[in-house]
Write a structure and sequence with these properties.
This protein is mostly helical. The protein folds into 3 domains: 32 residues, no CATH class; 62 residues, no CATH class; 61 residues, no CATH class. It has 8 helices and 4 strands. The strands form 2 sheets. It has a two-stranded antiparallel sheet with strand order 1-3. Helix 5 crosses helix 6 and helix 5 crosses helix 7. This is DDE-1 domain-containing protein.
Length: 188
């Protein structure tokens, strides 16, 4: 490719490209911080070998309304990425290797939109919520049958967790805001 085409494709001035070409050996031999703040996607490269697989596991556990802790993530890694885990623990200091693994997983969860939360004891099972929702829907439709669909708005619907003994759990972005399970409003 010519310098003109590369310049147009990268949206970088041609003089900058020529400077990069002249300094390519120094640039490629750079041994400093690999954090990249200027180009997409930005940030350090992912240390973990299979983030999509781990995120899929996290979402699967949470879809089943189970408590998800960092210990569960470590068990998944032991089952699916054992070689990486042994290499990672071998490169860390022995007395701090477990803590560094926990921090790595906490940062991975944070980067992918999960937040650490404390579960509470006063949660209701999903089956009970479904019963309450169907009763409420039947009562609502009986009471407001005279109003058209364009006058009734369903504001929010959020999953609720129950029976969670762990101290902290991982929750997605939508669950971090406090909101009621189902709330409907009637416009007068």
């Amino acid at each position: 490719m010519s310098v003109y085409k590369v310049s147009a494709a990268l949206d970088v001035p041609r003089r900058t490209l020529r400077d990069w070409m002249a300094q390519r050996h120094e640039i490629l031999a750079y041994d400093g911080n690999l954090k990249n703040m200027k180009l997409e996607p930005g940030g350090r490269y992912e240390d973990f070998p299979d983030p999509p697989g781990l995120i899929e596991f996290i979402n699967h556990v949470r879809d089943n309304e189970r408590a998800l802790t960092t210990t569960h993530l470590i068990l998944w890694i032991k089952a699916n990425q054992r070689e990486w885990l042994t290499n990672y623990l071998a490169t860390q200091q022995q007395r701090t290797s477990y803590d560094s693994l926990l921090r790595l997983l906490q940062r991975l969860c944070d980067r992918h939109g999960f937040s650490r939360q404390r579960p509470t004891k006063n949660k209701v099972k999903q089956a009970d919520l479904a019963d309450v929702q169907s009763e409420f829907a039947a009562e609502f439709h009986r009471e407001y049958i005279a109003y058209g669909k364009d006058c009734v708005y369903n504001v929010n619907e959020t999953g609720i967790y129950y029976d969670m003994p762990p101290r902290y759990i991982w929750a997605g972005e939508a669950e971090t805001r406090k909101s009621p399970a189902v709330r409907s409003i009637r416009l007068a």
